[in-house]
Specification:
It is built from 8 helices and 8 strands. It has 176 residues and is an alpha/beta fold. The longest helix has 16 residues. Bound molecules: flavin mononucleotide (FMN).
Length: 176
């Protein structure tokens, strides 16, 4: 099989859990974006990042390596708190990823969507601030979607939807 690297950026560990599972199953080399400096020897790159305010975390690394990546098999996975079983959420994620990456890289990549975790108390100060703004916006709405109700819950209760077995479809795709 082609030489594969799994590269990820993870703030609180959910993306790392998926990346580690996928990387080990594929017997791939696993790197954080800080470690991944020379990718020339890899034919396949699997990249994972969390969704933050609709953007893909680590997209700066993807943009920096765009030229090389366009000549490789590229698989992206996102990790967000919203449920990717809901088509509307996937549509939102895709719009955000497109803004982060641009058309060319986006259309070259195959994308998978996984669900992450959130523990408000563990968030960095900047992230707490961002979430507070979002909570207030949602609280002011007269009608809320189930997704918004779910986000509100994270303020009081830690949520963990990580299910690494969701990575199997990606693993099969890489092996094709
Ligand atoms: C400030 C902030 C903004 C976020 N924005 C989104 C978002 O727009 N959509 C989403 O699905 N999840 C969002 N999340 C949830 C993260 O994507 C989720 O916690 C994910 O598991 C993080 O992965 P990581 O710990 O590997 O970085 C946000 C989380 C934080 C802290």
């Amino acid at each position: 099989m082609a030489k594969t690297a799994v590269i990820f950026r993870s703030e609180y560990g959910s993306t790392k859990r998926y990346a580690t599972y996928i990387g080990e199953k594929l017997q791939a080399d696993i790197f954080t974006t800080e470690e991944a400096k020379d990718i020339s020897s890899y034919e396949t790159i699997v990249f994972g990042g969390g969704i933050y305010a609709s953007g893909l975390n680590g997209s700066d690394w993807l943009k920096k390596n765009q030229e090389a990546l366009l000549h490789k098999k590229l698989i992206l996975f996102t990790c967000g708190i919203s449920d990717p079983q809901d088509e509307k959420n996937v549509e939102n994620i895709l719009n955000g990823v497109k803004k982060s990456l641009g058309e060319e890289l986006m259309s070259h990549a195959k994308i998978f969507f996984f669900r992450g975790a959130m523990d408000y108390k563990r968030l960095k100060l900047t992230h707490k601030g961002m979430m507070k703004v979002l909570y207030e916006m949602i609280k002011r709405k007269k009608e809320r979607t189930t997704e918004e109700e779910g986000i509100l819950q994270t303020q009081k209760t830690p949520m963990d939807f990580v299910d690494v077995s969701q990575g199997e479809a990606l693993i099969s795709y890489v092996k094709e």
